[in-house]
Specification:
Elements lengths: L3 E5 H9 L8 E9 L3 E9 L23 H13 L6 E9 L4 H21 L12 E8 L5 E7 L8 E2 L1 E5 L8 E14 L4 H18 L1 E4 L25 E7 L20 E14 L7 H29 L13 E6 L6 E6 L5 H12 L51 H6 L6 E5 L11
Parallel strand pairs: 1-3, 1-8, 4-5, 9-11
Antiparallel strand pairs: 2-3, 2-4, 5-6, 6-7, 9-12, 10-11, 12-15, 13-14
């Protein structure tokens, strides 16, 4: 037998409620967390209907499977990935078909699972580790008999064959998952050129992501060994249904993680620079099946990288869609808001632009997660816009051929000013922003 998948009971109820109309199929995402022994599925989300869907425009469709829009399914997965906290990801897909399409369904699922993984990885700035599981789950459900067939594909092997997997349901699997919180202050400037500004921004963020990956992660103020258990000694007098909260800190320097020596000054011709500034709230969940501290550190670090890169990407997309519609030289990145995910112990997130309200967030939750969220349940306080350090975007074209020199590295052991720990770990923060400035010096600070 292959990998084992344990899904929340709410996933079973949701899948049971879905039905494919005559001559059609239903696709969707399976969301959760992987571990070395087994995977946990906490949410299932159907692919939203596309306006052009079902209208092939003269193209003859021999099978409902041929009418599945591969690009639309992958784009939905990318959008949903932005809404997930650290440690939680898209694990695979489900497909509901009529009985006569059961044999062809596996080929369709394989094609979709590889397309989804490729689309999500395209925006990813961090590298997979040896601990990462590359098997992705597919669940085929017959619309008439409701029989479910679970199989996996290794997305690192395009020629792989489907492997059988075990699928079962269990109640409350994520209610006791520990949660890690931290706030990160970012002050990063990236020199860019007119010809490839987007690529320069992506490369600059990727260099910064390497620093975060190589940083030292403290949990509850202590450095622990990678192989130590996260919950060791902390749950002896705690009920298994109670969720524990950990404070995380990330300490980094500007040394090149792969070079083993301090960075030297670099001369680079540029026309402007992009500055990412502000404080972001980060959150990650880790399964309670004997998790290691390295897994917890990895989850929160990846959330730091993802939340910053997602905001930059979203702002660039917004500016592209509204090209010429906003001549202001100052722009704010969207701030992160959270909402509890019903039927689990987790929260999901979204990014709210300054001109948006919780009603807009609730509408996106409904569209992308097929989930009704009350506006009052959406927590907008984690990154308060009224904070004095609210960031901006400014554009100036005076960089020319000036030198671009990194400032002296920040030592991980360098003392940092003491702050109100309750405020810091609760994530009272401001959203990051992008600023087009006339300088090209990169600088990164992370709060303790």
């Amino acid at each position: 037998m292959g990998r084992g998948y344990t899904a929340e009971e709410c996933v079973e109820k949701y899948l049971t409620s879905l039905s494919a109309a005559a001559g059609s199929c239903v696709t969707g995402l399976l969301i959760g967390q992987s571990s070395a022994q087994k995977d946990f599925v906490v949410l299932a989300v159907k692919t939203p209907h596309r306006e052009s869907e079902g209208s092939p425009g003269g193209r003859r469709v021999s099978s409902p499977l041929d009418d599945i829009d591969e690009e639309w399914v992958a784009e939905h997965a990318r959008q949903v990935s932005r809404m997930l906290p650290g440690g939680v990801s898209v694990l695979g897909l489900f497909l509901i078909t009529p009985p006569d399409l059961s044999k062809e369904a596996q080929n369709t699922l394989k094609k979709l699972i590889f397309a989804v993984d490729k689309y999500i990885c395209k925006s990813r700035l961090w590298d997979l580790s040896e601990d990462d599981v590359t098997d992705r789950v597919t669940l085929h459900i017959c619309s008439k008999t409701r029989k479910a067939v679970c199989k996996t594909f290794d997305v690192k092997d395009p020629k792989c064959s489907a492997k059988p997997a075990d699928w079962r349901y269990q109640s409350g699997i994520s209610f006791s998952w520990p949660v890690l919180n931290c706030s990160v202050r970012v002050d990063l400037q990236i020199p860019v050129t007119d010809s490839s500004s987007e690529k320069c921004i992506k490369d600059g963020l990727r260099r910064w992501a390497k620093q975060i990956e190589a940083g030292l992660c403290l949990i509850n103020g202590r450095q622990t060994s990678d192989d130590s258990e996260l919950l060791s000694g902390s749950r002896k007098n705690v009920k298994t249904s109670q969720q524990l909260t950990f404070r995380a800190q990330i300490l980094v320097s500007e040394e090149d993680p792969g070079a083993g020596q301090r960075c030297s000054a670099v001369v680079q011709a540029c026309s402007r620079s992009v500055s990412v500034r502000g404080t972001v709230h980060c959150r990650a969940y880790i399964h309670s099946n004997k998790p290691r501290t390295r897994h917890a550190a990895q989850a929160i670090k990846r959330d730091v990288v993802d939340t910053v890169s997602n905001r930059v990407e979203m702002l660039l997309e917004d500016l592209l869609l509204n090209e010429g519609g906003n001549d202001s030289e100052q722009q704010d990145l969207p701030r992160r808001v959270f909402a509890p995910l019903s039927g689990s112990g987790l929260t999901v997130c979204d990014y709210m632009f300054p001109d948006e309200t919780p009603a807009d967030v609730a509408e996106r939750f409904k569209e992308l997660l097929d989930w009704d969220s009350a506006e009052g349940d959406i927590d907008t306080s984690m990154e308060a816009p009224a904070c004095r350090s609210a960031p901006v975007l400014e554009a100036e074209d005076r960089c020319g051929d000036e030198a671009s020199q990194p400032v002296p590295p920040v030592s991980p052991t360098e003392p940092v000013k003491k702050q109100n720990s309750t405020q810091y770990y609760a994530g009272v923060a401001v959203a990051a922003a992008v600023a087009l400035l006339a300088t090209a010096t990169s600088l990164l600070y992370l709060n303790e």
